[in-house]
């Protein structure tokens, strides 16, 4: 089980993992810097789609030879996303990565019925992978960017996707905490009722508990002080958010106030998708590439 992004990087390097990445709208200093860092580690080869003139200028500033990359011009961000998706569909890339473009535009290419990456009966959601410095382990938070107001069925699918990612990270039987504002089921707070229902479903490859307030999901002391005794209490590997707003605000607060390294990826897609916020740092976009590289590998516990 990985404890931090450095351990993921070291393991991928030791396993000689090399994947081809199609970066949509690559004229973005932070996304391009992330890909360049991964290329210098020997982890990826890059196809850069976007404003080729700006891409070449950024590569020169980074001390990179443009001949080391495949460069493709695009008229706008929509075309860049479609071109990156086409490269994966045609077998010329293994991973698609979001550069300087809106999530809605990027997702349009991912969700395209003919050329997108939604498997039959599949469900896509976003996950943020974080280093939990206090506990010396990794944590997954979902959904933070795609599913606006998931119902009970959607939350069950989000759990399955997040658990699949957790298993890629070496967590054999992830502990999943379904989060709300309080830990007691209340009909006046619908997310607590969803959490209770989810905790009562049969789960084979994970442990699901809820509802949890955030404190008793990640702190055994907090759970014990409140007299809570239920699965996953205080030791959650995965936090399932009540809605997109909660997930987005929570993860960004950890990034901007706690300064934690994080990785944004899409879960449930047929191919790995590195999907960070446009405002994310080069470091976080590099971490997203590491997480996407993990997604490209077989499940260690399959």
What does this entry look like structurally?
There is one protein chain. With 302 residues, this protein is α/β, with parallel strands linked by helices. The protein has 2 domains: 1-118 and 269-297, Rossmann fold (3-Layer(aba) Sandwich); 123-267, Isopropylmalate Dehydrogenase. The chain is 39% helix and 19% strand. The protein is built from 11 helices and 11 strands. It has helices at residues 5-14, 29-40, 52-61, 77-89, 103-111, 152-168, 190-199, 214-218, 220-225, 244-256, 282-295, and strands spanning 19-24, 44-50, 70-73, 95-98, 125-132, 137-142, 175-179, 207-212, 238-240, 262-267, 273-274. The protein has an 11-stranded mixed beta sheet with strand order 3-2-1-4-11-10-5-6-9-7-8, sandwiched between helices. Strand 1 (19-24), helix 2 (29-40) and strand 2 form a beta-alpha-beta unit. Helix 1 (5-14) packs across helix 11 (282-295) and helix 2 packs across helix 11 (282-295). The radius of gyration is 19 Å and the shape is globular. The chain starts with a helix and ends in a 7-residue tail after the last helix. The mean pLDDT is 95.
């Amino acid at each position: 089980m990985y404890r931090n992004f450095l351990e993921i990087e070291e393991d991928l390097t030791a396993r000689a993992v090399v994947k081809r990445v199609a970066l949509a709208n690559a004229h973005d200093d932070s996304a391009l810097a992330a890909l360049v860092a991964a290329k210098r580690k020997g982890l990826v080869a890059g196809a850069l789609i976007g404003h080729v003139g700006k891409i070449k200028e950024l590569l020169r500033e980074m001390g990179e030879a443009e001949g080391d990359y495949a460069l493709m011009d695009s008229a706008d961000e929509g075309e860049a996303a479609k071109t990156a998706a086409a490269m994966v569909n045609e077998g010329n890339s293994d991973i698609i990565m979001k550069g300087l473009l809106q999530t809605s535009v990027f997702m349009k290419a991912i969700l395209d019925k003919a050329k997108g990456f939604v498997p039959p009966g599949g469900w896509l959601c976003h996950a943020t992978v974080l280093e939990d410095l206090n506990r010396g382990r990794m944590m997954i938070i979902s959904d933070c960017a795609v599913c606006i107001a998931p119902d009970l069925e959607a939350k069950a699918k989000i759990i399955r996707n997040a658990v699949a990612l957790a298993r890629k990270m070496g967590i054999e039987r992830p502990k999943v905490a379904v989060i709300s504002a309080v830990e007691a089921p209340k009909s006046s707070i619908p997310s607590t009722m969803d959490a209770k229902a989810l905790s009562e479903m049969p789960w084979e490859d994970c442990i699901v508990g809820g509802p949890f307030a955030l404190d008793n999901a990640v702190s055994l002391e907090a759970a014990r002080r409140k007299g809570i005794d239920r699965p996953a209490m205080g030791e959650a590997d995965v936090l399932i958010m009540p809605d997109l707003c909660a997930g987005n605000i929570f993860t960004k607060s950890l990034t901007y106030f706690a300064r934690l390294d994080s990785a944004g990826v899409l879960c449930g897609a047929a191919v790995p998708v590195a999907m960070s916020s446009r405002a994310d740092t080069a470091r976080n976009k590099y971490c997203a590439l590491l997480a996407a590289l993990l997604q490209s590998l077989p499940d260690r516990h399959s």
